[in-house]
Amino acid sequence: MDFNMKKLASDAGVFFSRAVQFTEEKLGQAEKTELDAHFESLLANADCTKNWTEKILHQTEVLLQPNPSVRVEEFLYEKLDRKVPSRVTNGELLAQYMVEAANDFGPGTPYGKTLLKVGETQKRLGGAERDFMHSASINFLNPLRNFLEGDWRTITKERRILENRRLDLDACKARLKKAKAAEAKASAEHELRVAQTEFDRQAELTRLLLEGISSTHVNHLRCLHEFVESQATYYAQGYQYMLDLQKQLGRFPGTFVGNAESTSPPPATTSPTTVAATIPVVPTVGRAPNPATAVEGALNLNDVKPPASGTRKARVLYDYEAADSSELALLADEMITVYSLPGMDPDWLIGERGNQKGKVPVTYLELLS
Length: 369
What we know:
Blueprint: H1 2-26, H2 37-64, H3 68-79, H4 90-105, H5 110-178, H6 182-211, H7 213-250, E1 274-275, H8 294-297, E2 312-316, E3 335-339, E4 348-353, E5 356-361, E6 365-368
Helix pairs in contact: 1-5, 2-5, 4-5, 5-6, 5-7
């Protein structure tokens, strides 16, 4: 008990001495030991690293999980050292709704078939998003958190100790200046030497920790490269999935064509009512041939004649590359003549341009009456 009381009294005296020194420094009544310029530079670099790491970490978390409630829930699970429950991604949930809707509308209908195809792609996109989030969390977020919760806490602790050692050192210097008697001066000089030794030792320890920030930058640089690689993989997968979907929809019977009036001005010579198509698929090289019906397969383009009901003019909305010799390649904004034949797939027409003739997809055309 005596020992504890003495230690408590000693600690209280040290705390009071530091408080007095700190207050006098703020009031300009006491001198302060300044750190060298290199040390100050290390401190500024460490603070800068900590501040930007916090901001990058937070914004990356927002990027991966925009829902703040879910982020808070995941944070609590992590702090409680419990496994975060598995959640479906937005893409996977959308895919689920599309499949259920297709089953209700009828999977054999054009709309139902398209919903199934799009839903399948959304599911693949959701899976790619899940893989990206997992990879980014392991390879990027965790190292940033480890720095803030590990190395930075150690640095902060040692900096606080260094500040206390500096206050003790400056308090000893102040006492030495005030000492008059020889015995008091000797005691103050001894305390000053001890305080200086402790300050130098703590300064060296803190310096080593601060210099380790450069290694932290190297580690974070490597993690950043891994984050970019995983993000690039994710976007590349999404791009490929959407290209595949566009190919399927471009050749898929029952592709929707809207009947809204076009807002673009009609040609000067006519006053047509335009029939605007929805955005078509992006043509790509190397597509599979169009699964033509029996009637289309039997067509001989050289023998095809316009029907008695007449033809229509159409403006090409997008470039189209013919998949085979039965199709007509198109260039955006050109005008062609189109007509349909009995038994043809409703998503295709016969197009003529000069002496060239071939099948063309309706979704690439703006039909003019």
